[in-house]
Specification:
With about 290 residues, the protein is α/β, with parallel strands linked by helices. It contains 13 helices and six strands.
Length: about 290
């Protein structure tokens, strides 16, 4: 147990590792390996690109570590170059590299969670967002994100939704401030689709959605959004982010306090059935 916690503490200290950025570290290593395999196969970039459905310029960007390859590209490249799984073995690392630096450790823990409890205030949790909501929110970032980065993050965020298909199914609880459900990010049509999606997700047996109405005069969530993650073996973590930076708490005393705080927040919010009716009411108002 101590060894695992030491490992997690090291992960926290390395949240802003520059070697994980596009152009360095594992992304560059993949690009170099791809170029080596391509040249050994006697293929020019244009020919290789045609066979995997990418332009020569896009292939160059990947080989130079300036672009993170998508899973489908990696699979096709491995097959076309006869790599025997050498490139496929790096799919996990490439998927992790798609996330912003501050979220990468959380993404790994999220994928291993047996229980996840999230409190959100400004926007709907990424695990619950529709693709249209994702694009609208990412387009609002300041400084502005380029279109390629937006597409990359949409793909990464959609990949996180696999948590709903896992078995054994993790227990998931979400408490959302009413304001997050009223903000028309991307317009009313996008919001309508988002609310409809919440109603569908809320019907899953392992998911509980709760709304914290704005008129509540007592709210233990005044310190902002956070997520409590429990992993197999009883390990517990608390993740929070603000303004492009994040914290990942591993100390048992602190995680216990956060879990207790989340329990209070849940008790102050509408019950799941009441919350479903509330979301349906908001949808009917659009």
């Amino acid at each position: 147990m101590t060894e695992v916690r030491d490992e997690e503490s090291a992960a926290v200290r390395q949240q802003r590792r520059p070697e994980d950025e596009p152009g360095t570290g594992v992304v560059t290593a993949f690009g170099r390996q791809l170029k080596l395999l391509r040249t050994r196969a006697g293929m020019e970039r244009a020919e290789f690109g045609r066979r995997v459905g990418y332009s020569a310029d896009s292939v160059a960007s990947i080989e130079q570590g300036r672009r993170i390859p998508q899973p489908q590209f990696i699979e096709q490249a491995d097959e076309v170059l006869g790599a025997g799984g050498l490139l496929n073995a790096l799919k996990g690392e490439m998927a992790r590299a798609q996330y912003p630096r501050f979220f990468r450790d959380m993404a790994r823990l999220e994928a291993e969670a047996v229980e996840l409890c999230a409190y959100d205030t400004i926007v709907v949790n990424g695990l619950l967002q529709t693709e249209e909501t994702m694009r609208a929110i990412l387009a609002m970032r300041r400084p502005l994100l380029d279109q390629e980065t937006i597409e990359q993050r949409v793909v990464a965020r959609l990949a996180r939704h696999e948590i709903f298909n896992r078995w054994p199914a993790p227990l998931m609880s979400f408490v959302m401030e009413e304001a997050a459900l009223r903000r028309p990010h991307g317009g009313k049509a996008v919001l309508r689709g988002q609310l409809e999606h919440l109603l569908l997700v809320g019907d899953k047996r392992n998911v509980e959605l709760q709304v914290m109405p704005t008129d509540r005069d007592d709210n233990a969530g005044i310190d902002g959004p956070f997520t409590v993650i429990n992993r197999k073996g009883g390990e517990q973590f608390v993740y929070a982010e603000v303004q492009g930076s994040s914290s990942l708490e591993t100390k048992r005393d602190e995680t216990n306090l956060a879990a207790a705080r989340y329990g209070i927040i849940r008790s102050q919010a509408l019950a799941p059935r009441e919350s479903r009716d509330y979301i349906a009411k908001l949808l009917g108002e659009l």
